[in-house]
Each structure stands twice: as C-alpha cells, then as structure tokens.
UniProtKB/TrEMBL annotation:
Top EC class, one word: ligase
Stored SUPFAM superfamilies: Acyl-CoA N-acyltransferases (Nat) (SSF55729), Nucleotidylyl transferase (SSF52374)
Keywords assigned by UniProt, alphabetized: ATP-binding, Ligase, Lyase, Nucleotide-binding
Function as written in the Swiss-Prot or TrEMBL entry: Acetylation of prosthetic group (2-(5''-phosphoribosyl)-3'-dephosphocoenzyme-A) of the gamma subunit of citrate lyase.
Protein name: [Citrate [pro-3S]-lyase] ligase
Source species of the chain: Selenomonas montiformis
Lineage, opening ranks: Bacteria, Bacillati, Bacillota, Negativicutes, Selenomonadales
Length: 358
C-alpha cells in the first residue's frame, strides 16, 4: 500500500531519489523549495513527489509507470493542508503545459503560460480579475482627484520598481517618464522580502514623487515581480530559469497593461544586476507583441558611475548614512535613513554578507 510522507531536505538519499523521479518527468528540483513530500510504494520506491516554496506549489512528478493511479490528488491535498496551516489561502502553482488540465480538474485556474514550458495557475477563480479591478479602481479614484483639465485615460505608461531604497536614480527615471506621458502608473513591488520593508519603501517613494502630477502609485500585489511570478528576482537562479520567470512575469503584465490602457513601459539601463538586465532583454522582445512599447532610459550617473540602490546599500553597510549618500538618494530618503526609525533596517544591512543585487 502506498504511503505519503515528508522528504526532509537534509536527507541526501531521499533527495537523490526525488531528483531521479523529476528527471524522468522532464523537470528538475527547484533549489528554493522549503518543503517536499513523496508517495512511496510498499517496496519503498518513490513514485510521486511534490513541493512548495512560500505559497507556491511546484516540482510535481509522477513515475511514468504509475500514471493514472490517482497519485496527484493526495499530493496536492497534503500540500494545500500544509499551506492552510501556514495561513496561506491564496495559492499559486507551476506546472508543465501537458499537466495543466489535471490541476484544473483539482481546483486550480490558469492565469498565464510562459511559452511552451510553463503554466502559472492559482486556486482562486477570481484572484487575478480582482487584482485588475483594484488597479482600475485606484486609477479611476486618482483621476477624479486630480485638479486641472481632464486627463485622458488612454494611452498611459508604466514603471515597475522595487526601490530598495528609493534613490535619485529611481526619481530621475520617474521624472523622465512622467514628462513624456499624460498618465504614469508606478507599480511598487509589494512583497516584503527586501532589506527595506515595503511600508518604508512605499513611504519613501510617495515622498520622493510628491511633486509629480499624474503619477498613480500602485502596490504590485502577487502578480508583478513576486516570489510567485518572478522568484529569480529574489533568489539566485541560472540564466535559463531566470529567463523563464521573466517571460512569465511579463506575460502576466501584458494582461495588466490591457486592463489599464498602458501602451508603454519604461525601465532604466541595468549595468550591475544580471537578472534585471535579462528581464529588460525579455521585456523589449515580448511587450511589443502585445502592443506595449518598451523604452529603456539611460541611468542617472554621478560622475561616470550610474546611481544604483545596490551601491547605496553597500555604502550603508560600510559607513552608514554618511554624507557620501548626498546626490545618490533624495533628501527625503536621506532624512529617513538618519532618523531613529531606520536603526533596525541599518542593523539588518550591516549584518548581511552581500547587499548587492545579483
């Protein structure tokens, strides 16, 4: 009789068996899994596996000789129960295109496909549509509050940024885009896995752009550069994996652009981060297919050196909020960095071995 049990990530023998099973299924084990389980035969042979990272389910594989034996439902039920114990109700799932229909039968709904290699799904039938309605409502509310002549709702443009922390480079990019567009949607990555907490990043962005008209600040939610859509942004992965994640994130963004009438997306040149530079490459190729132009603007430089959040974090790690930051961050950011409120963040940065974005 088959039995389901946890596979501890420290168990090399069990992990080797899981890796072999995933290889048979044409996938490989995600290095960021925080939980893995498997179904074993009486002979102790591993015949099915599934895992998760955060609130995403991934790495499902069933031995080809045991296909059709109903092994997927107990795996999925076990992982959903685990997620409920963690307090996660909104769940996301990666799978191969040929397996998507099985997960549809088990209560998951397709959001997007990244080429012919990856399908992204969630367990809430209206999760993504609710996100789109929120963004539309925020846009309508902002436009009603703007003084002066009516602002056309279309076309508009967008920027997505993490702002960890908000620098003069971020401010320059927003100013350049806002000067060219009647409406600019600014999506701030809201997942709280950066050295600067989301609440702090949002506050610093709001203060830094308070002089700019017709910029609408949105929380990105789980559908734009999150651990669900683009984990490579937060976790180091090889180029092929990062490219697949970038394609998925941009595929989802195309739906957001259509809902908000976004016809152009701006980004800054990326001389430091390989993964962000790769993302820009994929964006320039994929967005025009959906009628969204992609404009990559030159970085703001201090002397010959481009301004970057990574460089700011390195200075904070090495020397704290020194005068060296003048010209790298807006006055509002520097003021916050020198306030008592910043102490826990500065301590966290000082304790990090590497504060630069990969």
């Amino acid at each position: 009789m088959a039995n389901l049990r946890r596979i501890f990530l420290s168990d090399r023998t069990a992990l080797s068996a899981a890796d072999q099973l995933m290889k048979k299924a044409g996938i490989r084990r995600d290095p960021h899994l925080d939980y893995l389980c498997g179904i074993y035969e009486d002979s102790e042979a591993l015949i099915a596996v599934g895992g998760c990272y955060g609130n995403t389910l991934r790495c499902f594989a069933i031995d080809p000789e045991h296909q059709g034996e109903g092994l997927l439902p107990p795996l999925l039920t076990h992982l959903i129960d685990l997620q409920q114990e963690r307090g996660n109700t909104g769940l996301f799932l990666y799978t191969k295109p040929d397996a998507a229909r099985y997960f549809c039968d088990l209560g998951f709904y397709e959001i997007a496909r990244a080429g012919d290699t990856l399908v992204f799904m969630e367990n809430q039938p209206d999760g993504f549509s609710r996100c789109l309605r929120r963004l539309q409502d925020e846009t309508d509310q902002a436009m009603r509050q703007w003084a002066g002549p009516p602002v056309p709702s279309r076309p508009s443009a967008a920027i997505v940024m993490n702002a960890n922390p908000f620098t003069c480079g971020h401010k320059y990019l927003i100013e350049q885009a806002a000067a060219r567009e009647s409406v600019l949607h600014l999506f701030l990555v809201s997942e709280d896995v950066s050295l600067f907490p989301f609440a702090v990043r949002r506050r610093l962005v709001q203060e830094g752009i308070s002089h700019l008209p017709h910029v609408i600040l949105h929380d990105s939610g789980p559908y734009i550069i999150s651990q669900a859509t683009f984990p490579s942004y937060f976790q180091k992965d090889d180029e092929a994996v990062s490219r697949g994640h970038a394609l998925l994130d941009i595929t989802i963004f195309r739906h957001i652009a259509a809902a908000l009438g976004i016809s152009r997306r701006y980004a800054g040149e990326e001389p430091f981060s390989a993964v962000t530079n790769l993302y820009n490459q994929v964006m320039r190729k994929e967005l025009p297919k959906a009628g969204v132009q992609c404009t990559i603007l030159p970085r703001l430089c201090r002397g010959q050196t481009p301004v970057s959040a990574s460089a700011v974090r390195q200075i904070l790690k090495d020397r704290g909020p020194s005068d060296e930051l003048s010209g790298l961050v807006p006055e509002s950011t520097l003021r916050w960095l020198r306030s008592p409120e910043a102490a826990p963040v500065l301590q966290r940065i000082a304790a990090q071995q590497d504060v630069r974005h990969h």
